[in-house]
Amino acid sequence: MFTKENVRSDSMSYRGNRKTRRRRRARRIWIRLLLTNLLLLFALALALRAGAVLSRGETLKGEGATEANGTKEVDGRGGGTPGTVTSAAGKSKKTEQWNLILVNPWNEVPEDYEVKLTRLKNGQAVDSRCYPMLQQMMDDCRADGLNPYICASYRTMKKQKALFADKVRRVLLEGCPKDEAEDEAAKTVARPGTSEHQLGLALDIVDADDPQLETWQEDTPVQQWLMKNSWKYGFVLRYPPEKSSITGIIYEPWHYRYVGRQAAEEMHNKGLCLEEYLKEREEG
């Protein structure tokens, strides 16, 4: 039998249960928000830590530059932590000086060659030992009102293989006979294992106002400056026009190789390419 007291009791019990459910629901929502905030804080901490790691490596200065094929490279603003890379590419005679290792169509990168790299922004890298002089050269060039940038530097064997395969494909499309395609491609792109870029000592440096890798690059203000001054920093124009029969590479007025200040000065004063310089040293 229902009485007023029973109804009142049931009503109070219902209201109490409803309040309990509300409290429980509010507690669950609060817990979810707390967990969400903790996860956000953890993600933020990871991001800040990653940023700190990257910032510790930013030692280069300068502006970024876009290569003709659209990839972004820099000679500055974004150096990184050095790493050790082993490049195995074939057999060659060892030299006692790392900066004078000879790599050309007849001399491959030594099988046990190892290089410690200083990484530049967007993946570019150079041998850590030549990095300080490279940065000094780029800074001084800019101080004279010019705008140089690096469009190629260290390459892995995998990268060199891809570049060479692509060049072979292109010469085939141009009508070159299949049995001649690799030799034709090698005139402008080094066969894997025979590229100085695999040493981490070679760089392609161009004028930001005319970044094309063409012979007219020699007439740009940046190249005029580099051809005149690069030897002071230990770099030489590796493939001069009159030395192609010796270097085995066509004229490239953008390809610079670090050989050290002493060697660069002597090569500059005597008009020698690296092959001639090493031969003269050996005979002397």
Explain how this protein is built.
With 284 residues, the protein is an alpha+beta fold. It has two domains: 56 residues; 187 residues, Muramoyl-pentapeptide Carboxypeptidase, domain 2 (2-Layer Sandwich). The protein is 43% helix and 14% strand. The chain starts with a helix and ends with a helix.
For this entry, give a set of tags.
single chain; 284 residues; alpha+beta; Muramoyl-pentapeptide Carboxypeptidase, domain 2; 2 domains; four-stranded antiparallel β-sheet; three-stranded antiparallel β-sheet; 8 helices; 9 strands; elongated
Give the SSE map:
Elements: H1 4-56, E1 64-66, E2 72-74, E3 83-87, E4 113-119, E5 125-127, H2 131-143, E6 148-152, H3 157-173, H4 181-185, E7 202-207, H5 221-229, E8 235-237, H6 244-247, E9 255-258, H7 261-270, H8 274-283
Strand order of the largest sheet: 6-7-9-8
> CATH top level of the largest domain?
Alpha Beta
Question: Low-confidence spans: pLDDT under 50, at least 5 residues?
Answer: 7-11, 50-95
Which of globular, elongated, flat, extended, rod-shaped describes the shape?
elongated
CATH architecture of the largest domain: 2-Layer Sandwich
SS field, number of helical segments: 8
What is the number of domains? 2
Structural class given helices, strands, pairing?
alpha+beta
Terminal Cα span: 124 Å
Mean pLDDT, to the nearest integer, reads: 79
Strand content: 5-15%
CATH topology of the largest domain: Muramoyl-pentapeptide Carboxypeptidase, domain 2
- Summarize the biggest pleated sheet: 4 strands, antiparallel
Instruction: Write the element-wise H/E pattern from the N-terminal end onward.
Output: HEEEEEHEHHEHEHEHH
Q: Rg from C-alpha positions? A: 31 Å
The count of β-strands is 9
